[in-house]
Specification:
mainly alpha; ABC transporter involved in vitamin B12 uptake, BtuC
Length: about 280
């Protein structure tokens, strides 16, 4: 594969993109899991699929390509996050209700646009399950920009996001603009999900944001350690899964997820093993 990396540009773009996704997915997923909003990623991933299907429909029916499929996915995902935030304010006593509503809407729109675009094709299959050969230079640059933006925002708003993740009432009491911060958090998730779809696929993107975090939670001693361990497990899963999928000629999304599950099971088993006390 090393020799092929030097020969084929698309492989280098895929590798670099995978490393970026393996970094931002688990990093943001840490805050997502701590806030018990794991299903939020699933909802926005289906909204992103609707955006991608809409882009393919417009391109096929009207021969228009105003935005790339990923950029269409970003737009729809951001709109979906805005609607979820609005529904949270409407259903104050049942704030999680907005997630299945938007998820259902995303699935419904996806089915409609896929049908209007005359059904499934190779491009859509790649977006559902991920693809090694589908990542182009424009996709890589888009994902690079998203990675830099998400990293900068988390760096500057780390304390606010941390406080909001563990105790939203306390965050409100000390004067934090919780609604603005939560909205910013939703936008970040929308961007990360849209970025991850090229490699992992719509149906498996949630796994990349949660499985490395679940693995790291078994051994982490602090929240910062949880973040770095989650990123480490995410990168390991992405690189191992990508190389395996290349040699096995299978979609990378499923391979990456299975590697992440193996890492999770390994940490669970190790933690269950009896530990001998240290003797001098």
């Amino acid at each position: 594969m090393i020799s092929h990396l030097a020969e084929f540009t698309f492989l280098r773009h895929t590798l670099y993109t995978s490393l970026l996704i393996g970094f931002i997915g688990p990093m943001l997923g840490t805050f997502l899991v701590v806030r018990r909003l794991s299903l939020l990623a699933d909802a926005l991933s289906h909204v992103t699929l609707a955006g991608i299907a809409f882009g393919l429909f417009v391109e096929k029916r009207f021969s228009l390509t105003l935005l790339s499929p990923i950029q269409n996915g970003v737009v729809f995902s951001v709109i979906g996050s805005i609607f979820i935030e609005k529904l949270r304010s409407i259903y104050k006593g049942f704030q999680e209700l907005g997630i299945p509503i938007i998820l259902s809407g995303g699935v419904g729109l996806s089915v409609i646009f896929i049908a209007l675009a005359n059904g499934f094709n190779t491009d859509l299959f790649n977006y559902l399950f991920g693809s090694i050969s589908a990542v182009g230079k424009d996709d890589f640059l888009t994902i690079l920009l998203i990675t830099l933006s998400v990293t900068v925002v988390i760096f500057f708003f780390y304390k606010e996001l941390l406080t909001l993740s563990f105790d939203e009432e306390h965050a409100t009491m000390i004067g934090l603009h919780t609604k603005r911060i939560h909205f910013l958090f939703m936008i970040l998730i929308a961007f990360v999900i849209a970025a991850s779809i090229r490699i992992v696929g719509v149906l498996l993107v949630t796994a990349l944001m949660t499985l490395p975090v679940a693995t790291a939670m078994r051994i982490a001693k602090s929240f910062k350690q949880l973040i770095w361990l989650s990123i480490s497990f995410g990168e390991l899963a992405v690189v191992t899964g990508l190389i395996s999928s290349y040699y096995l000629s299978i979609p990378p999304g499923g391979t990456i997820v299975m590697v992440a599950i193996c890492l999770l099971l390994t940490t669970i088993i190790i933690n269950k093993l009896p530990r001998k006390e240290f003797q001098s």
